[in-house]
Specification:
The protein has one domain. It is 79% helix and 0% strand. The chain contains eleven helices and no strands. Helix 3 crosses helix 9 and helix 9 packs across helix 11.
Length: 242
């Protein structure tokens, strides 16, 4: 479980470093680099979307996922978690708001949670390590997460480090379950899973850049639906594997 540990440590170290630096980092850097990370998220999303095999299956998964996410108020739950984390961290360390309002903090925290926990690199890196014992993908992701968490922590404070907890839990779960999950999949299912995650990553980039506040957290359940829907689409609609 080297990859999840290294990735989680990178987020914690980056967050502590960025939170400690705070306003000592020039405002132009704090404002410009998150935009770059947003563009990078959109580029990664596009790279994953082009792998799509069955467009209707991906759309249906996103629609069902968004419906479930809205019904259970998934994003609101993450925001409550973020608010509690911020209060806890601020009680331990001096608050570093850097002019960030409570609403902006919650908005960026949700976007970062999705970016760190639901990226295609993290998901497939975890599953790949579970199957091959090769942590290289997650280690490569850790380098990017180190700098991403550091930059955002200059504005959001040490609370960014808390994201390492759900990130580690998700990656560890995927790693441990990879041996049972991957043998049940097909190339088409993997491709559509990538495309579904890519669509969410693309929307995350829009949110980070402040272009459009997509409810990205509420879209996450779509990742649970896409593989079964893709498999059923291939079997009953296209006849693949039938």
């Amino acid at each position: 479980m080297i990859g999840p540990i290294v990735n989680g440590a990178a987020v914690v170290i980056g967050s502590i470093s960025g939170g400690a630096l705070g306003e000592r980092v020039p405002a132009r850097v704090r404002n410009a680099l998150p935009m770059t990370f947003g563009v990078a998220s959109m580029a990664l999303g596009i790279a994953l979307i082009v792998k799509i095999k069955f467009i209707p299956a991906v759309i249906l998964a996103l629609l069902l996922g968004s419906l479930i996410g809205e019904l259970i108020s998934l994003e609101a739950g993450i925001q409550k978690f973020a608010a509690k984390a911020r209060r806890l961290i601020d009680a331990i360390t001096p608050a570093r708001s850097n002019g960030v309002s409570h609403e902006e903090f919650l908005d960026k925290f949700v976007a970062l949670t999705v970016l760190f926990c639901a990226s295609g690199t993290g998901i497939f890196g975890s599953m790949n390590e579970g199957m091959t014992n090769d942590p290289s993908l997650l280690i490569a992701k850790s380098v990017l997460d180190l700098f991403t968490s550091a930059i955002f922590a200059t504005a959001l404070g040490f609370s960014v480090a808390v994201i390492a907890i759900p990130q580690f839990a998700i990656q560890a779960g995927l790693l441990l379950g990879a041996e049972q999950i991957l043998p049940l999949t097909t190339p088409e299912m993997i491709a559509d899973f990538s495309a579904c995650g890519g669509a969410i990553m693309f929307a995350t980039g829009f949110r980070i850049c402040g272009i459009k506040p997509f409810p990205i957290a509420n879209m996450l359940p779509g990742l649970l639906f896409i593989m079964p829907i893709s498999a059923m689409w291939a079997r009953y609609v296209t006849g693949i594997g039938g």
